[in-house]
C-alpha cells in the first residue's frame, strides 16, 4: 500500500498524539470487560474463528475474543498500547502500524472489527478496503462509529472527544453507510452502543458529574437510533 508524503506526515501526527498524550500515563494492564464479553457472545465467536481488531488499543476486546477461544489478531498505531496488548495476549498476532496498510494475508479472518476508531483514521476508506482484503468472503465486519446527529451534539452540549485535537471526522449514520458501501461493504444490522450503562462509566469523572452522566446513560436507552452517540454497524462484503 503506497503512501503520499502528506499521508506519512498525518500518520506521524496521529502516532505522536496517541503515544505522548492519549496513552501518556498508561501503565496498568486492562481487566476483563463485561461489555466486551457480552459482545463476543453476541457475535458467537468460536475457537475456529480468526478475529482481527483494527485499532486494538490495549487489547480489552481481543482479551474477550481469546476468552471465547477465538484466535486474536490486532494492530494499533500506538507502541505504548501495543506493548500492553502483547503482554496480555502473548500468543496473538499483534502489530504496531496503521490501519491503512495491514500486515496480514488476504482472506485470513472470519471476523473483522474496528470499535470507536474509524473516525480518527487518516484515510478511513483505504482502511476499510484493507479490512475487506484481509477478510474471508463470508466474514462478518463490526464497526462502531460516532453519530454526527447525536442529540447532545446537535444541542451544542458536546463537541467531541479529546481526540478531536488531532483528528476526528464524525459523520451522520447515512454518511457512514455511504462510506461503507463505497468501500465494498453492505450494512446488515445496526444497534445502539450502551456500554455506558455501567457504574464504571457513570463514575469515571468527578463526583459532581455523576447525576448528569447517569441521566445521559439512561437517556440512551430510550432515544431512537438516530439520536445515539455511537452505533454498531454489522456488515458483510458486497456481492459484485
What keyword list fits this structure?
240 residues, alpha/beta, Rossmann fold, 7 strands, disordered N terminus
Overview of the molecule:
By secondary structure, the chain is an alpha/beta fold. The chain has one domain (5-193, 226-237): Rossmann fold (3-Layer(aba) Sandwich), CATH 3.40.50.150. Helices cover 37% and strands 21% of the residues. It has helices at 5-22, 34-42, 60-67, 79-88, 124-134, 151-154, 173-183, 199-202, 210-222, and strands at residues 50-54, 71-76, 93-96, 109-115, 135-146, 185-192, 230-237. A seven-stranded mixed beta sheet has the order 3-2-1-4-5-7-6, with helices on both faces. The relative contact order is 0.13.
Quickly describe the structure.
The chain has 240 residues and is α/β, with parallel strands linked by helices. The protein is 37% helix and 21% strand.
Give a topology summary.
Elements: H1 5-22, H2 34-42, E1 50-54, H3 60-67, E2 71-76, H4 79-88, E3 93-96, E4 109-115, H5 124-134, E5 135-146, H6 151-154, H7 173-183, E6 185-192, H8 199-202, H9 210-222, E7 230-237
Parallel strand pairs: 1-2, 1-4, 2-3, 4-5
Antiparallel strand pairs: 5-7, 6-7
Quaternary structure state of the chains depicted? single chain
Query: What class do helices, strands and sheet pairing give?
Result: alpha/beta
> What is the mean predicted local confidence, pLDDT?
89
Give the helix level as a range of percent.
25-40%
Q: Give the number of helices.
A: 9
Question: Uncertain regions: pLDDT < 50 for 5+ in a row?
Answer: 1-5
**Rg over CA atoms:** 17 Å
The global form is: globular
Main beta sheet, described? 7 strands, mixed
Distance between the termini: 23 Å
Q: Which range does the strand content fall in?
A: 15-25%
Q: Order of strands across the biggest sheet?
A: 3-2-1-4-5-7-6
What is the string of helix and strand elements?
A: HHEHEHEEHEHHEHHE
CATH superfamily: Vaccinia Virus protein VP39
**CATH domain topology:** Rossmann fold
CATH architecture: 3-Layer(aba) Sandwich
What's the level 1 CATH class? Answer: Alpha Beta
Q: How many strands in all? A: 7
Total domain units: 1
Amino acid at each position: 500500500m503506497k503512501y503520499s508524503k502528506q499521508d506519512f506526515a498525518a500518520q506521524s501526527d496521529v502516532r505522536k498524539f496517541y503515544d505522548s498524550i492519549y496513552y501518556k500515563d498508561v501503565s496498568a494492564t486492562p481487566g476483563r470487560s463485561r461489555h466486551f464479553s457480552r459482545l463476543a457472545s453476541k457475535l458467537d465467536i468460536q475457537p475456529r474463528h480468526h478475529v482481527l481488531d483494527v485499532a486494538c488499543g490495549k487489547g480489552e476486546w481481543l482479551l474477550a475474543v481469546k476468552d471465547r477461544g477465538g484466535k486474536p489478531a490486532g494492530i494499533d498505531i500506538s507502541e505504548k498500547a501495543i506493548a500492553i496488548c502483547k503482554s496480555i495476549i502473548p500468543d496473538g498476532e499483534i502489530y504496531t502500524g496503521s490501519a491503512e496498510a495491514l500486515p496480514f494475508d488476504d482472506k485470513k479472518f472470519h471476523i473483522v472489527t474496528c470499535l470507536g476508531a474509524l473516525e480518527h483514521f487518516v484515510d478511513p476508506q483505504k482502511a476499510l478496503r484493507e479490512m475487506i482484503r484481509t477478510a474471508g468472503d463470508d466474514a462478518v465486519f463490526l464497526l462502531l462509529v460516532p453519530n454526527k446527529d447525536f442529540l447532545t451534539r446537535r444541542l451544542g452540549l458536546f463537541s467531541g472527544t479529546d481526540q478531536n485535537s488531532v483528528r476526528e471526522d464524525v459523520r451522520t449514520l447515512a454518511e457512514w453507510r455511504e462510506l461503507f458501501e463505497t468501500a465494498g461493504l453492505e450494512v446488515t444490522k445496526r444497534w445502539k452502543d450502551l456500554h455506558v450503562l455501567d457504574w464504571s462509566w457513570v463514575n469515571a469523572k468527578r463526583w459532581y458529574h455523576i447525576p448528569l452522566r447517569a441521566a445521559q446513560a439512561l437517556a440512551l436507552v430510550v432515544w431512537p437510533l438516530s439520536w445515539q452517540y455511537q452505533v454498531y454497524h454489522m456488515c458483510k462484503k458486497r456481492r459484485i
